[in-house]
Amino acid sequence: MTRLIRSELLKLRTTNMWWIFLICSLAFTAIALLINTAQADSELHEPDYLHQDPPPGLSDQERDQFLADQQAERDRVAQARAAAGLAKSAANIYTSGQFFGLLMVTLLAILLITNEYYHQTATATFLATPKRTRVIFAKLITGAAVAVLFWFITTVIDLIVGAVFFANEGFSNSLGAWAAQQAILLNLLVYVLWAIFGIGIGVLLRSQLGATITAAVLYTVGTYASLIALALIHEYLIKKDWVMQTAVYIPPLASMHVIGTLSGQIGDVHLPPRWSGVLVLIGYAVVLGTIGTLITRKRDVT
């Protein structure tokens, strides 16, 4: 198994694909950091109108509404500046770039499988190692190792930028808060699970182009199409909270839920605990990994 893993790592690092995907992941992380820090900045600072008196000429009702809006905004800012609010903002910043980072890891894992068929090296690989299950496990371990590398590099960048941001803002960086630590650690688990998804998809769809395009479209377009569909069903057909709660059964949305960012996508709906998203992702990973292994053991690679 050790030699198989070394072989897979050699195949990976002697091609350009790993660092191309890494560069893309870093670029998306930078964009996400800009967005998340800007959002946190707006949440932590009071807007100018809070320090203004009601405009002249307002009726008593309008004046009362103006003052009520000011008080509601002060409460919101105070909540954001509280320990729990800071930890939530920190968790969001420290996991910046997850959405597209997971896509890069998934596509890279897909290529670990589909490259064998594209370059017609699968036959030689399975002749050298007749026990195909061991080959799949080696690819799973390799994909997981690459996922850990991507997570580590992006997380270090997130932590540095996040710590600098909170220091400049004059607030705690919340690195000692369990909510932030949990988001970072669960993000690692999510990266590994999506690498397993990629291996499973690569086995099911052996075409390199077909597998990568299918995965990319389902992940990006499918995610937001699912959100729109659930919102429409909730608004016009079934006005129950459980409709929006089913979002945790959709893998990309389950990933968001694990790190606590799904609530910002579906509105004010009570969601199940974060570990439910972990269970959903593990379930998909086990199913895809098992199906992929069984198919590889029986499929004619020639």
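That was protein one. Protein two is written in the same sequence-then-structure order:
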Amino acid sequence: MSTTTIPKIKNPRDLITPAAFEGVAATVVDNNAGMALTDAERIVEEALKFVATGARQPGGMRPSRTVDEGWHALILHTQVYARLCSDLGHFVHHVPERPDPTRHDPTALEGTQARIEQAGYAVDRTLWLGPSNGSVPVAASCEHTSCGDANCELTCRTDHPN
């Protein structure tokens, strides 16, 4: 697996401006009736860690359904997301799939979490649960395929000139 040299930022909130972070967290709240702002902020932080790691170590990463909710919110803020990816040096694509809990592979989530930790971030494991766990209910319905075929890197891939 190749990696890209990008300055590591320990606090994922520092990857975007405070105003942008507030806006993205507000989008998560708006899309999930009854969600506490503190939960939305945790979800956005995990999504930022996920994207930053994907830019450094492209291919084969899978977000949990909960983290995917934060990633969706980031993507909806197109200027914020484009700037984030530009600052990270690579655009991290999101390729959703139809929900199908039978595709869930816990080892894919574990591998993604390990890569996030290798990138220097602490993982909030309560947000990396399988699709049937509703302890943090979210509207996101994507369930990403585990890696195993030629298309597996499409879920979280980056544009690299090589």
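The chain is about 45% helix and 5% strand. Keep this in mind for the problem set.
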